[in-house]
């Protein structure tokens, strides 16, 4: 069955509109000159960006979220790569179980993962102290993205490449560093970008596990919007959209299209 | 001098035996092929020698030293994989230099040795290319050069030609053989292609089901197979099951259907009334119907360039015969088959045909 080309084009356009409209709305709303978060904006200005840049609460929240995302991504990179190597090479008949276990945080509703972790950390007497629960939650949430991307890099790769390195005199570790690591680098970088964005953006996990003290950006925004309804929130969102965009483009320029 | 020695080498994967206590000695500079059907344990043998698999029992000795517990990187081997296993993120030069870097060879010497290896496999113009930009045959030569540039004591090859087209395969066959002779390196070559094994090797090791069925020169494996299964696996074999007329000092006399007798100059396995003998297709000649030792009728005729192949129906079952193109028999012709008793090979104990 063939679908008429104009119909297909229309459908494609609708999908894009559906996906991009919220972003456009937020960006436009952030340029609002008025005092309330409205759409369409009442006049254009950058005053809310200025307000935001002078608001320590949001700046701190962004810094905090970025640090959290960076640390979670770093730990996920190590754990995810190890999980992926085990999954593709050694898991044998347990492969499917391993895959599901690692992907579970992605499959389950985020709130379930969050509540499970909350119970667990209270049970072992840690609670939400020292951001241990929060950090664990973020690692769990980001792990699947590293795992999936490294899997893609490893699958279809010839296992004998590493063996060849061994016969040429490389130790297990050297063979990994000189041969396997460069080959999975694209997967690692794509995975890292995803992981960072997911961690930066995630709400449920952070909301339930954050504990006292400073909070990640999404929580801070949520708190703010409960009592204020100014375009400053849109300005914050626009800035984080821009940051994400820069990250994705930079990663693509650095690591994309190498293969 | 024995370079590689496998002593009762055993390998189990879980409960399944991939290798059932095989023993094999490979001499210095020898080219030995492991030949056998899929799943017979050829690759497993090679992996054990390379150190990729822990062996279950037995020993592997290089130069009479037990290396069974050594890591692959400490075994002084060069290996060529069926998939070539070139490092895709390195140029040809970098691929060749890798092994030398691992051995901490000085930079200047690396450059020199890589250049020499590249010349040896005629790849100098491709020095800076990435493997993906090379043809299958060229990748194959890079893999070979990479394994040889470190000057290992032993070269292992696992079906290195399986991914090449027929013409290139023939070319590479000669190339590898020449190179091996020139370098004089002890070589173990895995293949399931009997032609490859025959033409390249000093010795062919035929394996079935994790066991060595025969280890002998290509001529012996072909003309004097140790079993019917070897006979059938290596080339075409006509097996005739004939009654024994008598056994004496001259050998064994068997009777063909129709009454003609053949005296085989080798004693038959004792205590049997029948003998199974093998005749290769080119060891049977076709003549006119009234002259042969066994009458037959041409069922099928295939012209194959250098010679003609016939399938001939006889009272011993269908026999496969090759003849010169100067001789012409048509399908349906009645013919006589002649055997050269000196070239008939009595098979040991009758076993069921596989
Ligand atoms: N990693 C493994 N785990 C379990 N069984 C294995 C493993 N590797 C090989 N085997 C089994 O061991 C036997 C020998 O395998 P091997 O790879 O040595 O065969 P081969 O002779 O090289 O065959 P091919 O010509 O198909 O490459 C086979 O029955 C195979 O199923
Ligand atoms: Mg194999």
What is the topological layout?
The complex is a heterodimer of chains A (259) and B (354).
Chain A: H1 5-30, H2 47-53, H3 56-90, H4 95-107, H5 110-123, H6 132-154, H7 160-167, H8 172-201, H9 204-209, H10 217-227, H11 232-255
Helix pairs in contact in A: 1-11, 2-11, 3-4, 3-6, 3-8, 3-10, 4-6, 5-6, 6-8, 7-8, 8-11
Chain B: E1 2-13, E2 16-27, E3 31-35, H1 42-50, E4 57-62, E5 65-66, E6 77-80, H2 92-102, H3 107-120, H4 136-148, E7 154-158, H5 166-183, E8 186-191, H6 194-200, E9 203-208, E10 211-216, H7 218-223, H8 228-233, E11 238-248, E12 251-255, E13 261-264, E14 274-279, E15 284-288, E16 294-303, E17 307-314, E18 317-324, E19 334-339, E20 345-346
Parallel strand pairs in B: 3-8, 3-9, 6-7, 7-8
Antiparallel strand pairs in B: 1-2, 1-4, 4-5, 9-10, 11-12, 11-14, 12-13, 14-20, 15-19, 16-17, 16-19, 17-18
Report on the structure:
The complex is a heterodimer of chains A (259) and B (354). Chain A has a domain at 56-227: MetI-like (MetI-like fold), CATH 1.10.3720.10. Chain A contains eleven helices and no strands. Helix content of chain A is 76%, strand content 0%. With 259 residues, chain A is mostly helical. In chain A, α3 (56-90) packs across α6 (132-154) and α5 (110-123) crosses α6. Chain B has 354 residues and is of the alpha+beta class. Chain B folds into two domains: 4-232, 3-Layer(aba) Sandwich (Rossmann fold), CATH 3.40.50.300; 236-345, Nucleic acid-binding proteins (OB fold (Dihydrolipoamide Acetyltransferase, E2P), Beta Barrel), CATH 2.40.50.140. Chain B contains eight helices and 20 strands. Chain B is elongated and about 75 Å long. Classes of the chains: A mainly alpha (259), B alpha+beta (354). The A-B interface holds A 158, 160-161, 163-171, 174, 178-179, 182-183 and B 50-52, 71-73, 75, 77-79, 81, 83, 85-89, 98-99, 102-103, 146-147, 150, 156. Adenosine-5'-triphosphate binds at residues 13, 18, 36, 38-44, 192 of chain B.
């Amino acid at each position: 069955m063939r679908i008429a080309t104009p119909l297909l084009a229309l459908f494609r356009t609708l999908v894009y509109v559906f996906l991009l409209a919220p972003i456009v709305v937020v960006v436009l709303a952030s340029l609002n000159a008025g005092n309330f978060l409205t759409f369409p904006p009442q006049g254009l200005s950058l005053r809310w960006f200025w307000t935001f840049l002078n608001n320590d609460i949001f700046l701190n929240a962004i810094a905090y979220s970025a640090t959290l995302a960076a640390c979670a991504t770093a730990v996920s990179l190590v754990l995810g790569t190890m999980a992926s190597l085990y999954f593709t090479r050694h898991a044998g008949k347990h492969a499917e179980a391993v895959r599901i276990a690692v992907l579970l945080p992605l499959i389950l509703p985020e709130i379930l993962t969050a509540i499970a972790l909350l119970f667990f950390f209270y049970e072992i007497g840690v609670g939400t102290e020292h951001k241990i629960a929060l950090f664990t939650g973020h690692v769990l949430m980001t792990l699947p993205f590293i795992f999936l991307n490294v899997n893609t890099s490893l699958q279809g790769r010839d296992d004998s490449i590493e063996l060849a390195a061994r016969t040429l005199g490389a130790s297990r570790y050297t063979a990994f560093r000189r041969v396997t690591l460069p080959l999975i680098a694209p997967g690692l970088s794509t995975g890292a970008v995803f992981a960072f964005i997911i961690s930066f953006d995630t709400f449920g996990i952070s909301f339930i596990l954050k504990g006292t003290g400073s909070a990640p950006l999404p929580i801070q925004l949520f708190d703010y919007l409960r009592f204020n309804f100014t375009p400053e929130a849109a300005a914050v969102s626009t800035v984080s959209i821009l940051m994400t965009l820069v990250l994705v483009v930079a990663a693509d320029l650095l690591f994309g299209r190498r293969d | 001098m024995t370079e590689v020695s496998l002593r009762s080498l055993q390998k189990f994967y879980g409960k399944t035996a991939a290798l059932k206590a095989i023993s094999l000695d490979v001499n210095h500079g020898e080219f030995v092929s492991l030949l056998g059907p899929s799943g017979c344990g050829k690759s497993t043998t090679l992996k054990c020698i390379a150190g990729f698999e822990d062996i279950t029992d037995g020993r592997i000795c290089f130069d009479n030293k037990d290396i069974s517990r050594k890591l692959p990187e400490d075994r002084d081997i060069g290996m060529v994989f069926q998939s070539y296993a070139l490092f895709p993120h390195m140029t040809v030069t970098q691929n060749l230099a890798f092994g030398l870097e691992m051995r901490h060879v000085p930079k200047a010497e690396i450059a020199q040795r890589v250049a020499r290896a590249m010349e040896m496999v005629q790849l100098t113009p491709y020095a800076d290319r990435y493997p993906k930009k090379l043809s299958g045959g060229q990748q194959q030569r890079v893999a070979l050069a990479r394994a040889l540039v470190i000057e290992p004591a032993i070269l292992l090859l696992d079906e290195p030609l399986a991914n090449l087209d027929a013409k290139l395969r023939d070319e590479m066959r000669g190339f590898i053989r020449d190179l091996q002779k020139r370098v004089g390196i002890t070589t173990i070559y895995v293949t399931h292609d009997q032609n490859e094994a025959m033409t390249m090797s000093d010795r062919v090791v035929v394996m079935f089901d994790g066991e060595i069925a025969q280890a002998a020169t290509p001529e012996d494996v072909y003309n004097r197979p140790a079993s019917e299964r070897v006979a059938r696996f290596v080339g075409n074999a006509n097996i005739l099951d004939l009654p024994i007329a008598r056994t004496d000092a001259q050998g064994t006399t068997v009777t063909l259907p129709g009454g003609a007798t053949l005296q085989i100059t080798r004693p038959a396995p004792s205590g049997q009334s029948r003998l199974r003998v093998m005749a290769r297709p080119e060891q049977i000649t076709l003549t006119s119907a009234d002259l042969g030792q066994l009458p037959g009728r041409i069922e099928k005729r295939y012209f194959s360039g250098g010679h003609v192949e016939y399938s001939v129906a006889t009272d011993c079952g269908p026999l496969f015969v090759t003849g010169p193109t100067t001789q012409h028999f048509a399908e349906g012709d009645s013919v006589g088959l002649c055997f050269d008793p000196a070239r008939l090979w009595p098979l040991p104990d009758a076993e069921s045909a596989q």
